[in-house]
Amino acid sequence: MNKADITIALVDDHVLLRNGLAGMLNEAGYTVLFEADNGKAFTDKLTTSGQPVIALLDINMPVMDGFATAAFIKANYPEMKVLALSMYDDEEAIIKMLKNGARGYILKDAHPSDLKAAIDSIVSKGYYYSEMVTGRLMRSILDEPGNEKIAEDKLTEREVEFLKLAATELTYKEIAERMHLSPRTIDGYRDDLFAKLNIKSRVGLVIYAIKNGIVTV
What we know:
This protein is of the alpha/beta class.
């Protein structure tokens, strides 16, 4: 696909940032199809301005935020690819955006070359990975073949229970309280699963749980 054929919708309530991004993307050869202040404005413009290849979504927006917008796209336009562009680098935001269908996640303070790489990767590979979200984990959630996985029956009941709770917004301390275990025991479950599943982060555990049907989105 030629760069000019890669159409992008910019959804961000910060006008100056959005306009700057639009100018940079157009200069780089991409086609900015339209811009929107929030998710609701974006969904309205889909019927009049056409469907972009990529929706570049901010997370924190009024009226309809990036989480809700990504979920809407996943349900109604599954062929459209979502790239989250955010100031948030915490696991909870990343997990929630991935569960809602985002194909990549990049921070607003990233270098323009990183944004271009993210766009090109999503178009060519279907996903974009960075230091926050590794390629192996993104491939897992996108259900590409060739990835080894451990079936749920290979995990203990308590490990499955822990995975389900890890996919929520509970802290590890709150998970320990919910499971009536000590925080140290919960740390042990987490570290054992990291080793067993060859995963290095809570984001990875959540993606594994989604991929294997342990939690649903």
